[in-house]
Each structure stands twice: as structure tokens, then as C-alpha cells.
Amino acid sequence: MADASHSASYCAIAWSDFAADHPALPGHFPNRPVVPGVLLLAHVHALLDEYLDGYRLSGLPVVKFLQPVLPETSLLLGIEVRALNQHEAQGRFILRNEHQLVAQGSFVAEARP
């Protein structure tokens, strides 16, 4: 990740798919399962926390879901850190499948104590 002397950094993280037998899928929705948005965000959160070394994700103030994500769809998370200082990191993320953007949003992270 960029250090405090950089104004922006970019990263793309390949992400494996959600198996068709994932426990969150059967009730969301019967006969046409879709990966729940909360599950997508839980993985985005974990990957951002891992990428933002020295910072802890404190919020996702804006999130837009643009397309449903079906089971066994491979995804790519793109991260842009726009502001970084000793106290806070801010930026945006995009989540895409092979063909299109499926979600996007912004994040805020606080420096770890």
C-alpha cells in the first residue's frame, strides 16, 4: 500500500467465487440463488482490512449494488486509496465480474493504535 507521501494508490485483488452450496444461498432466493449483498460486503471488508496495512476499516459510507452476483461467479476487487495520512485512509472500491461492474462504493479506515 502507499505510504503517507503518496496521494493515491491502486490495487486489484482476485477473489474466488461463492460455491453454489454456500449456506447463505438457499433462502436468497429459492430456485434462483443470488449472493447476498451483506456477504459481498463482508468479503470486501476483510480484503480491505488486509490490504490497508496499519489501518482498520471503520466504514463504508457509500455502497451501490449494480448487478446481482450469481453463485460460482469469479470477482475482482479494485481498490483506490485517495487520501492517506497518519490518522486515516479514504478511498473507493469497485467489484466486478468478468463482464461488468457489480458494486462500487467508498471506504474510510482509521490508523491502528
Which key terms come to mind for this protein?
mainly beta, Thiol Ester Dehydrase, Chain A, 113 residues, 1 helix, 42% strand, 5 strands, disordered N terminus, five-stranded antiparallel β-sheet
Please give a structural write-up.
With 113 residues, the protein is mainly beta. Strand 3 and strand 4 form a beta hairpin. The N terminus is likely disordered.
Please indicate the count of domains. Answer: 1
According to CATH, what is the class? Answer: Alpha Beta
Helix amount: 10-25%
Whole-number radius of gyration? Answer: 15 Å
Query: Stretches where pLDDT falls below 50 for ≥5 residues?
Result: 1-6
How big a fraction of the residues is strand? 35-45%
Q: Tell me how many strands there are.
A: 5
Number of helices: 1
- H/E element sequence: EHEEEE
CATH architecture: Roll
Strand order of the largest sheet: 1-3-4-5-2
Question: How is this structure best summarized?
Answer:
By secondary structure, the chain is mainly β. 13% of the residues lie in helices and 42% in strands. The chain contains one helix and five strands, in the order βαββββ.
Secondary-structure map:
Blueprint: E1 9-15, H1 37-51, E2 55-65, E3 75-84, E4 88-96, E5 101-111
Antiparallel strand pairs: 1-3, 2-5, 3-4, 4-5
